[in-house]
Design goal:
Blueprint lengths: L4 E4 L5 H11 L5 E5 H16 L5 E7 L3 H11 L6 E5 L4 H11 L4 E5 L7 H6 L6 H14 L4 E3 L5 H7 L4 E4 L18 H6 L4 E4 L1 H4 L4 H11 L1
Parallel strand pairs: 1-2, 1-8, 2-3, 3-4, 4-5, 5-6, 6-7, 7-8
The structure holds cytidine-5'-monophosphate (C5P).
Amino acid sequence: MSNPVYLALDLPRLDAAIALATKVRGHIGGVKLGLEFFCAHGHHGVHEVAKLGLPIFLDLKLHDIPNTVAAAMQAIHVLEPAIVTVHAAGGRAMMEDAKAAAGERCKVVAVTVLTSLDDDDLTSVGVPGGAHEQALRLADLAQEAGLDGIVCSGHEVGAIHKRWKHGYFVVPGLRPDMGNSADQKRIVTPRAARNDGASVLVIGRPISRAEDPVAAARAIEATL
Ligand code: C5P
């Protein structure tokens, strides 16, 4: 089975990002490039990272009217991403059009509820039921829209997997060493996320900020 770890390249400098990915490439399955990276380095940056030969996850979290999102998907088609994110809150038609524009080789996955929003934040934007209920509702909508899967936390992936047997689940917020976190309730280990049905494990700082990123990536790989 291929390595499910996608390294989040959240580094401001392109050369540093490429140097890091080059070092650990043998111990990861792909790289995740976020909005920050794409706004700073654009298509050029993605092409440079793609030279490493690893699958690219473009985490752009697209959210606009269906026509605009479909056009954006077509514009990034040339980059041949393996995975692209959209916001499930953009609605069913937007997700359907995004998927139709993505082409067969690109998985389109929907962000349900950002982990930066708590229940009070959701209430303030008119969503009264809480984050968990909203995440499940949007996961169901993404499934109905024909998307490949969703992005969710390690705390939700088990419950969502039960409702969507063949979904493709991208899980961030992972910490290989639970003992190193002051906030143990908010994290899960890569192994636990995988056991609960995660297809892709997004890992950033536990590798990128490690004293020895290769050793850190190798140690994570050994637990999977
Ligand atoms: O925390 P870490 O550096 O491993 O995060 C890796 C990636 O996952 C980052 O790009 C971050 O934006 C994303 N992330 C997320 N939700 C979380 C934690 C991290 O989307 N709860």
